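== Folding task for one protein ==

=== Format: two labelled lines per protein ===

==== Paired sequence and structure tokens ====
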Amino acid sequence: MKNILLLTDFTRKSENAIDYALQLFTGESCDFHLLSVQKFWEYTMDDLMVANPKDDIASALLNDNKSDLQKVKEALVVRSKGEEFSFQTMVDYDVFTSAVNDAVKKYQIDLIICGTDGKNGIIEYIFSSHTLRVIRNTDCPVLAIPEAYQFYKPTAVQYVLDYDDVFKVCGKELFLEIVTKFASTINIIRFNHGFQLEPINYREERESFINFCMPSPVIYELHKDQEPLKIIKKSLSSRNYQLQAISVKSQSFLERMISESHLSEIVNAATLPLLVLRDCNS
């Protein structure tokens, strides 16, 4: 059974992500954990004044979320009748990524699914969006679903290998399960510099990917010294993909500042569901 963490803030984007998750895992045995994280500063003094005086502050802050989350659960149970799905609910008022990491550890989560609206401005550029913070600060695969995206079977998948990424089989089990289930064709977009101190053996990398994904067809493209986002967008416009995938390593803030990774740009520009995989050494 898969343990899947569904992040919700009761907005359209999180509802859409949950809808996608149910369709993606149709026919499988899954335990879905719905998590709502409440931020203290979203509550006013009026909210606390109308709370039951017998309740502690935590209860006063979380009661509404618990009630809303229970309604979501009841609707999902009805909707998924006939599937091997179970649903658990939990609310927290911690720092967002801390609450997510606590849930990942406690429930042995295999995949985090969240919605993203694709909006980015100077504040998100500096401090990162919730989606980016989850990706960068957890050791669990993340599937980010754009707000307006409707589910389509991922029969064509684009896998991006960024400048600082080297393909390794370890940590890619979930990816293999998905492409095997949907008999996907995989298009690898490999970015690299024309000159590197530690050159990558592209032939070996290609053969490793092909052997790992058998019998799924694999197309391997090498792009040297080219702008990643332009190549990704060009590839998306020329083929009808339904899923993107990328793998990342855990990095400190300083490492991210000097890294060649285009993770932020790829996440913010994503118009398709984006599966972010973790390397085993993360």
Summary: The first helix runs from residue 12 to 24. The domain at 2-146 is CATH 3.40.50.620 (Rossmann fold). Residues 83 and 114 are 21 Å apart (CA to CA). Residues 41-51, 121-128, 252-258 have pLDDT under 50 and may be disordered.
